[in-house]
UniProtKB/TrEMBL annotation:
Comp. bias (Basic and acidic residues): 386-399
Protein name: CRISPR-associated helicase Cas3
Domain of life: Bacteria
UniProt similarity note: In the N-terminal section; belongs to the CRISPR-associated nuclease Cas3-HD family. In the central section; belongs to the CRISPR-associated helicase Cas3 family.
Xref: Pfam families: Cas3-like_C_2, Cas3_C, Cas3_HD
Amino acid sequence: MSEVWGVPDESVWGKSRGLDPGLPPYPLVRHLLDAAAMALHLWDAFLSESQRLRIAEGMGFAGESDRARAVVGLCAGLHDIGKVSGFQFCSRHGSAHLSPALASGRERMTGEWFGHDVAGLQVTQDVLTALGLADGGEVRAAQRMAEVIGGHHGRFHRVEDGVAPGFLGDAAWAGQRVAHAGAVHGALGRPQVPEEFTAAVAVLVCGVVMLADWLVSQEDYLRGRQRELEPTLEGHFARSQRDAPTLLKGAGLVRVQLGRKEFAQAYGIAGEPNPLQRSMADELREAVGAGRRGGILVVTAAPGDGKSETALEAERILSHAFGTQGYVFLLPTMATSDQMHARIARTLQAQSGKEAGLTLVHSMAWLNSAYTDEDLDTQPVLTCDGDERPAGRGRAETDMRPQRWLRGAKRPLLAQFAVGTIDQALMAVLPVRHNALRMLALSGKTFIVDEAHAYDPYMQVLLGRLLNWLGAYGVPVVLLSATLPASVSDRLIKEYLQGAGHNTRNRRGARNTAPALAERTFPVPYPGWLYVDAASARATEISERRRTEQASARSMKLAVQVEPVAHEAGGRTRPRQDVIEQLLEPVSEAEGGTALVVCNTVADAQATYLRLRERFDQRTHQQGGMVQLLHARFPAHIRETRTAEVTAGLGRSGPRPERRIVVATQVVEQSLDLDADIVISDLAPMSLLLQRAGRCWRHEQHWARNGYPDGRTRPGWATEPRLVVLDPIADGGRVPQQWGEVYSEHLLTTTSRTLHSLTNTTISIPDDVQHLVETVHGDGTDFDWNTPGGNDEKAWTAHKGKETAERSMAGLRAVPRARSTAALHDLHHLPGEEDEWELSTRLGADSVRLLCTYLHPDGTLTLDPAATQPLPEATDGKKMPNASVRAVMRRTLPVRADWLAGADPDSIAPPPSWTDHPLLGELRLLRQPLHSGTAQAVTIGKHRLRLDEDLGLTRK
């Protein structure tokens, strides 16, 4: 592999830290060959057909996949070329083995220190030119390759942010850079640099480079290769190619083919698919036809209409048509993601996908019971982040960043099938480290977003920006919603099409007579679907016959009862609690039944639960009382258990309790499969009220056809589905002060008026749903300036101002659109080293994770009041066992950071031995003193906090 470029000096090391100190470090040229071989295998076995097509097209190699494959291998093979520099002196062990010809340059090369990724960015073009690969039209593509190589540690840099010439060394060092690159180039069959290389495609290539580098940098693998080096570089490259499949399988990234089953068998649902689901096979398939570049499908239907199964049926068609492998299913919250993960796991198993890579992807996913302690073990990845400083200047011995962005046995978003929160995907369009890796993970799958209505304007802009990039990659997209305003769906579709190459406005003098996106609208039928082809922008919708069948099959008259209530004593209307108790009297009587009471705040839910428990059943939730409580302010393990109990009692299959009252917050609005005989809700914006109403008589038609669980029909008092809205605004009232900024006052006021204007106090589902959503949430709901109403005008102005501010903030933070990205540095345009925890996908108060502990009289601190579980400690420099970390983290819960403002930092700090742990070190501790075995409240700043076993965390 020496060619005419010289022989690579194998004293130039690529990996040293974490390897056998009794042997020479791992040679850089061999690490480069490892990465090149892995990149080739990723092309063959990991990338989807659609990704390969897009990469080849973006390099000007359409129809020449092998040429694009070789360029990807070359980028991976040159990723660490910047290490042939002053980097070599950052390790005593590594520099001690340098050949005399290179070791003599130490003093000249270590005056200033730079990252080897930045050094790679600067030298790549010179190296390619020396190899004769960037003499003509390839110069711009060579610059793009340099950007990719400079970004392989997760952050793209400016070309002008170069390194000092001294850091790169003299002619001997420059010659070694060319020799190393020549060895890689020769091993790959001397590929040519393309004449074009688009930014969007370069992002994917960088993702491949990152993944290849990570896979061949695993400690066990490197130690084995270090001990048994092949005699020649040719032999080494051949061995690397043989090892690549095993490494990919060990990471859980091997693709599997599902054994597609019939509907009932695939999803475990008795009976035939409904008209909406049937339309996927007989109408969507025809609409997709011989599509070439993906498309976007928007599905709308009432809660409980089986949209999730509809999406998975659509995925079968879209993945087959557009060459994607697997899918990512994204939801608004961790709780809904946990529920969907269990459903998807059953679905994959039913389709012979037991070996398929399936991950749960959210910040606390590894705490889910789906993962065992063994699953949490991650193979150490010997990256060189932080190695750019010379030995002895405070470099940490252990870098935890790989575990932060690839934590978990299946490497979250990279798995063939992934379920998680929308936040994990939105990180791809924020200027955070490794956003290119997220883009790689998403671009090879069908992209499914559930509850698309549930995101505020800030998140809608980020979702639109992500759809823009996915449109550029030809990724098939499915959006699901029960209450999506037409203006929102229209904007999201147009963002996708713009990414696919369609103009928002026609250019002057352009010959293209197709109407610009700004001149078109894309209305989605309700219930039904709209499919828009990425290549042609042709829109196809569900047939009127199927839409009518679906509307008829799921038709329901929802009785709406509006009850004016007062949250404070002394008002003109009845107290809220009294109204709730009266409404629930029938549940406590002989016939029993089930009821769901949805509150707008945790405090309201806790107070409501206490009153109902006192009135109807003195037993607590843990003691099996008929009144249950569910909200987000329980420790993770308790919340998971309670969610399972609630969904089992009010789920489709039963066993159904004789009588049950569930008091909950907004956690039950989305994706929880609940059926109650009556739903009582605090006033909320119309779209959310309709979501809550979707938990009323949700399975009635299914039970009417297939029988009720345990043969127990609905009680006699439940003659029709009924939603009771507790309205504090009616009769001249005000939005309760304790609701704070939970919901816009304008949306609440508009919803209240709309409810009072209902004809016959009923809502026809699905016929009335879209009209009601547009009335309150649509773009056409401007304030009527002819009838100003004091607070109404102020509320409208505040609502619109907040909405505009959120959209503007998202626009400033998000990366540019795919076709507007000129330099890869545009993906990291904010100053500093932003990592995932530094930028948020959601606006609002910052949160921290709180661990509620128990302080015993003798000063002992435990995880439980009975003192059976002491706080685990890391001793003698040993790693904290996964089981201990899980035991702690499963007892944490998120709280607003400002709740802890004013607290003595030492009083809420974790134990000293936790400080350096990436998870435990970020916790805040509530040290609750025990008095007669009972935890006492702790005063922190303006609040008194206490973890009640039955109520969850209380705040006064």
